Amino acid sequence: MLRDITLGQYYQTDSVIHRLDPRVKLAATIIFIISLFVFNDIAGYIVAALFLAIVIKLSKVPFKFMVKGMKAIVFLLIITVVFNLFLTPGEPVLRIWKLTITKEGIKLAAFLVIRLSFLIIGSSVMTLTTTPNQLTDGMESLMSPLKKLKVPVHEVAMMMSIALRFIPILMEETDKIMKAQMARGADFESGNVIKKAKSLVPLLVPLFISAFRRANDLAMAMEARCYRGGEHRTRMKPLHYVKRDFAAYACVALYLITGAAAGRIAETVCALL
Amino acid sequence: MPIILDKVSHVYGEDTAMAVTALKNISLVIPDGQFIGLIGHTGSGKSTLIQHLNGLIKATSGNIYFNGEDIDADDFDKKRLRSKVGLVFQYPEHQLFETDVFSDVCYGPKNLGLTQKEIQLRAYEALKLVGIEDEYFYQSPFDLSGGQKRRVAIAGVLAMKPEVLILDEPTAGLDPEGRDEILDQISKLKKETGITVILVSHSMEDVAKYVDRIIVMNRGSVMFDDEPKEVFRHCEELESVGLAAPQVTYIMKKLRDNGYDVRDDVTTIEEAKTEIIRYFSNLKSAKTRG
Amino acid sequence: MGIIKVKDLIFEYIRRDEEGNVEGITTAIDDINLDIEQGDFVSVLGHNGSGKSTLAKHLNAILYPTEGTVWVDGKDTQNNEYIWDIRQTAGMVFQNPDNQIIGQVVEEDVGFGPENMGVLTKEIWERVDESLKAVGMYEFRKYSPNKLSGGQKQRVSIAGVIAMHPKCIILDEPTAMLDPKGRREVIRAVRALNDVEHITVILITHYMDEVIYSDKVYVMDKGKIALHGTPREIFSKVERLKELRLDVPQVTLLAHELKEAGIPMPDGILTKEEFAAAFDECVNRAI
């Protein structure tokens, strides 16, 4: 049953965002993340929130899937918020026992929460709307200039895609070996750290052997099917930009400009009033 | 020690959108000393069922009793259950990990917390039971042939001294020679020790030769549970679920359909041969009389 | 010369112990000669360790002869220039269904070979579609291979080879890890390839019931060809097959044992229909 898990949590549906070229989504995500750290006023974040909301709406993925990714970092978020709240020097607002909360602290903590949660939600939008396959293709294509620097871009992408294919298989295998050893009285839970680590040997040795055997078989199968690296290779699903991809790039650029200028605009509006 | 299953059901991924019912309301009694064949195509629930018998999977509903005790009760010792109900998984050689054959077989009894002497004694006996000679004891298990590796892995479970031995497709991937070796060894073991053996397989030919009871699973339910002869009477039903009776059964059925008065509840070559020879000698005596 | 010709093939490998010292030399293939005609369905039988898989790997230039020569479509496998031509001419399907599928989606896996060969995108799609249709897996083209059964995965692997438009397809124990249903699916697909597409098939197996439809059968033992002939000729030699530790189908075995017991059944019975006909004959004679 472990095989049923979908890696990269792709959410299957048909939307404009799903149909975008993976390169656009990758680039947009990176730009979005950078923008979160460049903007440093409320107005900028309002623009970012609006942009994110529109993209989520367009992607047709239920919002609860976006928030799922947040769960993993809730703990981290709380710790950083607490540190920022209490340890930022500045104008005191509230004093609890020996700790002071400052105005600057509140601002910093709030920005941090916004940045981190937008970052997580933003990258979730990408992984939810792009299959792992398209992602590796997109990365290979985006990184292709690095080939000139002798970076094995094709090989890295191939490795990632093979890893994605075999992770579920190896997870199932782990489960099987674990059960087989449990049937021989193995105990993977009790005991101290050393005992626990030792108890993993009967699991890890067979798992490694199996992984090597599979790797060996796969290499032979790939060779038999004429695989000889990235040279002279054509693509079944080549990446082609279409009109909507350029439109998407334009939207991202528009977002950047508005976000960066938002503070200024807000100031002018205020001053005029 | 008998195992009783009372209305056992199992659902994978319960409460999720992908819930799959693997077992539906199974009630079975597995008395001491039987040789049982458990048959069903891939996905029929047979692997899930056997993992319930030694507590590796917990039933979603229903109860399992081992020697009268509910195995899901809080105070029930699962580790002891696993030593009493030995489970040999498919491709068991994939679980070997020690540097030599003997140490690998010792792993099970060691986990039971026995004395060094007892551990070694059991490992020795288990290896003898599966027919592995002394000269292999200190070799790396990975240097053995496929059939030998598998027998070592089976010894690893036998060293726990189980009272019920379950083997999940012990002949998968072996050639005819390796297959016969394993099956003969198991059948011999059954005779020598008198333990209960449950053989999971999809080969009717293999099972028909050895077992005295066949349980056929389909879509998580028990479809047939009877002597081989009785089960193979239902050729058509078996075929409708992707299984088949042994080829000899079909041959005899064909002869009977062609109007010859021969028995068609035959399941092995030996039986078929005896039956056909009997038919011909009857013919001859009828001829001499006529 | 046929599509595949093997002349005086010997393959030896050196066994080493854990420290890498030479322990000895094993002769996996010992002087084999073969000539396989375009469009034939040839089976190679043998138990584990008989050398049949080693032979298969020579036909696809994965292994190279120690002595002797292997020609695929007239090209010597030892000539490095031809290696990709040979691998495209003689496609190979392996035993383990999980360890030969590269793509994460069925159609992408089938496209892998043509991609490597540099086929144009539009043609890749045509080849993928027609190959998947040929093995009856077209409706699964968008599936993840992890959600398929063993038999379905092997059919995808076969489609992956057909998409390379080979003249010959070598299947190295494609059914050894499958259940009976999966075995039937795969054998049916292989037979269709041979009957309909006229692709030369070399099926390596240890299941005797899979070879009854082939034009020619070779039985290997200890690296040599122990028997060869039509399935009927091979199946007539029950005692010899038993010696070679092969599994004779029940129908053939029963006929043979009856013959031994004095009932005049003919040798080499392959199906229950043939058995019934021979039985009629015997009864008529007895009356």
Question: What would you note in describing this structure?
Answer:
The complex is a heterotrimer of chains A (273), B (290) and C (287). Chain A is mainly alpha-helical and 273 residues long. Chain A has two domains: 1-130 and 242-273, no CATH class; 150-240, no CATH class. Helix content of chain A is 71%, strand content 3%. In chain A, strand 1 and strand 2 form a beta hairpin. In chain A, helix 2 (22-38) crosses helix 7 (132-143) and helix 4 packs across helix 6. The longest helix of chain A has 31 residues, at 153-183. Chain A is flat and about 75 Å long. Chain B has 290 residues and is α/β, with parallel strands linked by helices. Chain B has a domain at 246-290. Chain B has eleven helices and ten strands. In chain B, strands 6-7-8-3-9-10 form a six-stranded mixed β-sheet, sandwiched between helices. A four-stranded antiparallel β-sheet of chain B has the order 2-1-4-5, covered by helices on one side. In chain B, helix 6 (176-193) links the parallel strand 7 and strand 8. The longest helix of chain B is centred in the last third of the chain and has 21 residues, at 269-289. Chain B starts with a strand and ends with a helix. The mean pLDDT of chain B is 90. Chain C has a domain at 38-64 and 75-230: P-loop containing nucleotide triphosphate hydrolases (Rossmann fold), CATH 3.40.50.300. Chain C contains ten helices and ten strands. A six-stranded mixed β-sheet of chain C has the order 6-7-8-3-9-10, sandwiched between helices. The longest helix of chain C has 17 residues, at 180-196. At the A-C interface, helix 8 and helix 10 of A face helix 2, helix 3 and helix 4 of C.
Topology:
The complex is a heterotrimer of chains A (273), B (290) and C (287).
Chain A (H helix, E strand, L loop, with lengths): L15 H4 L2 H17 L3 H18 L3 H9 L2 H14 L4 E5 L2 E4 H27 L2 H12 L9 H31 L9 H7 L1 H24 L18 H30 L1
Antiparallel strand pairs in A: 1-2
Helix pairs in contact in A: 2-6, 2-7, 2-11, 3-6, 3-11, 4-6, 5-6, 7-8, 8-10
Chain B lengths: L2 E10 L7 E11 L4 E5 L6 H8 L7 E6 L2 E2 L7 H7 E4 L12 H11 L4 H14 L16 H13 L5 E5 L7 H18 L2 E6 L2 H7 L2 E6 L2 E6 L1 H5 L2 H6 L6 H11 L11 H21 L1
Parallel strand pairs in B: 3-8, 3-9, 6-7, 7-8
Antiparallel strand pairs in B: 1-2, 1-4, 4-5, 9-10
Chain C lengths: L3 E13 L5 E15 L4 E5 L6 H7 L8 E6 L2 E2 L6 H7 E4 L12 H12 L3 H14 L15 H13 L5 E5 L7 H17 L3 E6 L10 E6 L2 E6 L1 H5 L2 H6 L6 H11 L11 H15 L1
Helix pairs in contact in C: 3-4, 3-5, 4-5, 5-6
